[in-house]
Write the structure tokens for this entry.
Amino acid sequence: MPGHLIFSNYGVVNLYAILLNYCLIIFDNLSTLCYVPAMVDDRKIHPIGYVARQTGLSAHVIRAWEKRYGAVHPGRTPTGRRLYSESDIQHLQLLQQACKRSHRIAQLSDLDNTTLRGIIASKLADAGPMVAHPVELFTPVELLEACRAAVLAMDEQAFEATLNRAAVMLTRPTLFEGVIMPLVVEIGERWVNGELKIINEHMASTILVSFLRDMLSAFRPLPPMPKMVVATPVNQWHELGALIAAIVAAEAGWGVYYFGPNLPAEEIAAAAVYKNAVAVALSIVYRVSERQTLREISRLRHYVSEDVAIIVGGRGVQSCQADLKQLNVMYPQNISEFRDMIDELG
């Protein structure tokens, strides 16, 4: 009939098929154009401890990556505490994975998540660490992260090699304050929290003690150096802090006599008398019994002359600063303060 289109049944079916296919194509294209990736929460609500647990990075490394490389930009509470978002956590996780593939954080910090995923998924990354071309470690953060990975993997050779490299690449203050002390604190915290096995802690402590003792043995007390006795009191077996104090004092020009851990007050006093020391430095890490620890320090203060300075450091007496002041005992908050104190005494 003129002016009308007449379709056979076959033609109608074909027309429906064509229209359906056309609609599917349009729908598919619209779906692609309108695709929105899963949204990541950008609210700054998570404290750094939570971020550390989620990423496997230490709080020290997170802060260092933030300050030195701008890897993340946390918010702040009214009291100054850092707060992170889910987006920050995701970015840190990707950075950590890329670092494990032998890339340096300095090369990764400016990259977005899409690029980082590409690096992680690349064939080069899947090949694992490049044995023929090992990544050079230069910064304290990189060296700290390598030490941490070696401890977690129970890799004694890698741990010793990284410590030796750190000793060569870094100044002594940076080695202590940027690598060894943060590592020791993290190992202790993870062990207390049940996140690290005793064997990991013992492996790390054994190697660190040997490393620091070797470093200290390079110094020889010579007159007319002022003399210092360094030890830890009764029930304090952790000697890393004492060894670091001994090395810092030796570098500052003191004649240091190191007597090791777990010494009663009278033995420490005897050492001070025999060596004619003008200062005694103690490291106290464990909070076994504050009353007993203070009693030991009080006995030591009684045994030695008033003109002998007693310096006590470590977290084990952090809450006893008022008592220490009454006993005329100095308490440096960190290595820098300890260095300033002994410079004045010397």
